[in-house]
Amino acid sequence: MALEYSENPPRNLSEALWRGARLHCPNCGIGSLFTKYLKVADNCPRCGEELHHHRADDAPPYFTILIVGHIIIPLVLSIEMLYRPPLWVHAAIWLPLTVIAAMAALPVVKGALVNFQWALYMHGFDPNDRKDAVENRVSDR
């Protein structure tokens, strides 16, 4: 399979990921990426960049579970080995902490993933693909 040449200028991936982690627009870095907790704005309120093309789907929860799990599980095991608290203490500490950590990390991870897609021209963020998609939609009618 041959690689295709892209006419699009390269976008700074690390800058896009950082902006997404801060819940900002991948293009201008100022506008808000979300309109609600996890609802991605259709367009950036500042620069007008179209954001509705994203296809984050199940990736943000998956990566959030992966990240939070790698933080919480070593802490649980360390506390267990050092202090041997009763199970109800573990439940009282780790269940709320895990839920809070996951809820806090989820928008950050989703923002980074949406901006990742933008930086790599994935899922409709490529202006050349949008023209073809519109033409195909019109011809299908």
What's a concise summary of this model?
The protein is mainly alpha-helical.
Could you characterize what this model shows?
The chain is an all-alpha fold and 141 residues long. It has one domain (14-127). The chain is built from four helices and no strands. It is elongated, with a radius of gyration of 20 Å. The two termini are 32 Å apart.
What gyration radius follows from the Cα positions, in whole Å? Answer: 20 Å
Separation of the first and last Cα atoms: 32 Å
Shape: elongated
Care to count the β-strands?
Answer: 0
Round the mean pLDDT to the nearest integer and report it.
90
Portion of residues in beta strands equals under 5%
| Biggest β-sheet strands, sense, barrel | none
Instruction: Give, in order, the helices and strands.
Output: HHHH
Number of H- or I-type helical stretches: 4
Key attributes of the depicted protein:
141 residues, mainly alpha, single chain
Task: Summarize the helices and strands and which ones pair or pack.
Blueprint: H1 13-21, H2 59-83, H3 87-119, H4 127-140
